[in-house]
Amino acid sequence: MWPLLAGLVLLHAALYNGFPLVTSDTGTYLVSALELKVPIDRPVTYGLFVRFTSLWGWSVWGAVFGQCLLLGVLLLRYIREFAPRLTHPAGRLALLVLAMWATGVSWFSSQLMPDIFTAIGMLALGLVLLGRCRSGWEVGGWLGVAFGAELCHSSNLVSFNLLVLVMGLVAWLTSATGPTWLPRRRWALTLAVTLAGWLALPTLHAALGGGFTIVRASPAFLIARLSESGVLERFLDHECQGPATYSLCKYRDKLPEDAMGFMWGTNTPMQLAGGMEATRDEYRTIISRILCSPRYYPALAWTATQATLRQLTHVGLGDGLGQYRENTAPFWPMRAFPYELKTYLSSMQNHGQLEFGQLSERVGLAYLLAVVAGLGGLASRAARQRLGPGAVTWLVLVGTALVVNAFATGAVANVYDRLQARMAWLLPFTVLVLATELLLGYWATWRQLPATK
Predict the structure, then answer these.
(1) Three-state secondary structure call for residue 21
(2) Is the dihedral of CA 143, 412, 23, 430 positive or negative?
(3) Please, where are the H alpha helices in 83-183?
(4) Within 13 A of 84's CA, how many CA atoms are on the CB side?
(5) How many CA atoms lie less than 13 Å away from 104 in the CB half-sphere?
(6) b/e string for 127-163 if b means 16 or more Cβ within 10 A?
(7) Which long-range contacts (CB under 8 A, 24 or more apart) does 328-334 make?
(8) N or C: which terminus of the chain has fewer CB atoms within 10 Å of its end residue's CB?
(9) Are 410 and 306 a contacting pair, CB within 8 Å?
(10) Which residues are paired to 111 by β-bridges?
(11) CA 346/CA 329 separation, integer angstroms
(12) Is 75 within 8 Å of 93 (Cβ atoms)?
């Protein structure tokens, strides 16, 4: 019963809206779910999840409730593990409600989008890496969840593997001062699972007729990022002096200002050259030459660092949650759900009635306070001793997850609030759970003190 209630709590935003939240990308995922086609610019995995959880096109509510239920199980598990003094299930659910209100997590778990699976996968990996599984079957189960989540978004292939590698490094460095908390065998198993995603996703796409590739449009995304960072202009300035064969040479002084404009703007160099498929070979050649040329390494390192740091500050809500009525990408596949089309069109989102100003301010404040409290807790010897090394390691894991996600999205793709806010809520949630355990510990100590006359 309690996991079901947790799932309903995390479904709050969809219930409030009157329909699951959608973005322009939702249309692509719905088409892949309905037609079993591999999108040119997205993995097919989330489309398969929607296909199964919507009961083969019966209701999209099944998809969002399925992901909310899975996330609710994970969050209740973390509360039980790291706030053991909060013994009653109702108390854990109340803490989850408070976390949902403070962090805005429901605005991601309620979307018909794979974004929430980044956090789901990170949490599942955390249970394994932190040694919180009680059996081999549970280890296998959570690794299976993490593996499926990894395949839902191409950036997860980068961030999940980086998380496991960095946590292995942290375990190795801390083993000099005491027994290791991450045995090599468990770490190697986890790394093997996350590395397998690089092979599994292209294999899945090939099996469905999409070719043995992670995302066919990945060269376009990378070129767009190189254009925004200025590295592409450096390359074109150097390569286009003579008789150049690159279609981009004629546009080197007219490149769009940002990656979003390069990918989705009108009359962009990519569109004028024929689109994503037509430019794929050329863009792959340019990317290969840039990555193999040391002259561009300082610029690549600097722009990647800058983008990662910028992405860490972009935690606002509401990105992409505009109106998508007739003749929009989500509307066309929604017609395959005729009994839900009216509720889709009558939702608050599709009437422009969702306001995110105050909510983003609250979430931003919670994020900032969590950063300060988290760093303060790590610096406080008393807090570390009372909470124990496991809690400290969990805090380090969450901080690492936020940084690697910022790198995988900001440095490799583009700086965008939605791509970081989908993960940023984990830090306030972690701090809230640990603060609850700390306060309950102080309360228990105070009650044990002898009464003064």
Answers:
(1) strand
(2) positive
(3) 89-103, 106-109, 116-129, 136-150, 154-174
(4) 7
(5) 24
(6) bbbbebbeeeeebeebbebbbbbbbbbbbbbbbbbbb
(7) 328/24, 328/27, 329/24, 329/25, 329/26, 329/27, 329/28, 330/22, 330/23, 330/24, 330/26, 330/27, 330/30, 330/112, 331/27, 332/27, 332/31, 333/27, 333/30, 333/31, 333/33, 333/34, 334/30, 334/60
(8) C
(9) no
(10) 21
(11) 17
(12) no
Give 208-236 pLDDT, tens digit per residue.
999 999 999 999 999 999 999 999 999 99
Q: Does the reported pTM lie above 0.85?
A: yes
Confirm if 161 and 195 have CB atoms less than 8 A apart: yes
Please give, one letter per residue, the 3-state secondary structure of 260-285: HHHHHCCCCHHHHCCCCCCCHHHHHH
CA pair distance 119, 123, nearest whole angstrom: 6
Dihedral angle sign, alpha carbons of residues 146, 60, 58, 324: negative
pLDDT digits (tens, 9 = 90+) for 260-315: 888 888 888 898 888 888 899 999 999 999 999 999 999 999 999 999 999 999 99
Phi/psi for 38 (5° steps) reads -80, 120
Residue pair 128/186 in contact (Cβ under 8 Å)? The answer is yes
Report the greatest alpha carbon distance in the chain.
94
| Contact between residue 129 and residue 45 where contact means Cβ atoms under 8 Å apart | no
| Residue showing tokens 């002898």 | 450
